[in-house]
Write a structure and sequence with these properties.
17 strands, alpha/beta, five-stranded mixed beta sheet, 2 domains, Arylsulfatase, C-terminal domain, Alkaline Phosphatase, subunit A, four-stranded mixed beta sheet, about 15% strand, 13 helices, about 500 residues, globular
Amino acid sequence: MADDHTSQAIGVYGSRLAKLDPTPNIDALASGGMRFDRVYCNNSICTPSRASIITGQYSQTNGVLDLAGNIPQKKQHLPREMKAAGYQTAMIGKWHLKMEPKEFDYYSVLPGQGKYFDPLFRVRGDSAWGENTIQKKGQHSSDAITDVSLEWLKNGRDKGKPFFLMHHFKAPHDMFDNAKRYNSYLEDVNIPMPDNLHNQPTKGFGSKATKEYGAGVTKNHPSWGIGNRLGVDQNLPEPEYGNTVYQKYLKRYLRCVKGVDDNVKRLIDYLKETGELENTIIIYTGDQGFFLGEHDFIDKRWMYEEAFRMPFIVHWPKNIKGGSSNDWLINNTDFAPTILALAGVKKTPDYMQGRSFAAALRGDAKPKDWRKVTYYRYWMHMAHKLAVPAHFGVRSERYKLIFFYGSDFFKVPPNRTELGWGMKNNKDLNRYHENTPVAWEFYDLENDPHEMHNLYGNPEYAKVIGDMKLDLKKTRKELNETDENYPDIKKIIDSNWD
């Protein structure tokens, strides 16, 4: 898994960036396996997404609603179940779930986000969690994480047992610091821009202009100040300013992606050399999607496709027809049940809310009772300077319904001056307290795949919207995603449902 690696930046997904050939080695996995086209996270932010992957549960069940959440040993369900199935387990790279990954037989993980250069790793030892460390000086994190995984594969595991390795890159997480050998990569190339970078209509989000929310590339979304961080002349007019920021931003991102792809090859080459490639299931994914200028946005968090959708590729030569694809509606709570099924576990544990899609890998027909919608919830109302309002919704194969409820689920004490996620002064804290307009958005993704036209209120879609509201209410109840414990939010929902 790579952090913030979005499907637009993987060649096999065929985006505007595909002709740059950014990921030949990851694409080769898809050529020898299956590409999944409708895989979604249930919260497009690092910690909650990873928590859902490791537990097979949605946020209100596993308790990780935002970046402050953690997963203690008792909730590290996936490695525990894999060990019970006879697998030796390892967690290497970005963990980001705070507590010691104690259920793994071996771990070497970055503290928090970790560093791009000279990375420090927390390892098991005699001292308290966090005090036993090793450092890879003079290395970029992508290279160092791969070195650690290769060392474990070569010398650290019991080769008489099957293994389960979670190899997680830090890259290409913002701010995209690449290894120096990639400094000239794409230097003289003009990166294709999304059609809606400079052409983003007001979405109908509340009564205020959309540009007041989110962080982006142009001066219409200045809240994160990405251009200033990239050293772009703030006096440049639009569209020159936005175009300049975009080129710098994308090249830094894609240079980190290139480093990830090259290190994926190192792992594949090792499996080839040892004769294990044909007997190893390789899954490649990101922890969510990521905006690369679409809608004039950067980062993630929104329920729009670029952030909501996850890349998911499975290479399994013995059982998958190479170059195949799948369009089942899948989300990241399904990862753990599927991995367990592939490991021979006959039944998904009752406490997991996801469902195995191992049958899809075998080319079986989609079960008639497969989900009709997938659920999403972003809790971190107006957090950081990214200014994304809290919202939830559902996506079907064709339609998407989003409800912006405009309020935070807890109130920050007024004397608190540091939240640990970018709010360092009273102005930032006041914005966090700010309620934003309550609003619905609805998109017909078949006719409007880039979500440019909010059709909520369009009488032609009244029945579809009504049906999706029923699906949303039913899904929230089934998944323990109601707001009974948050009466302020529940009141907003109930009074604005119709």
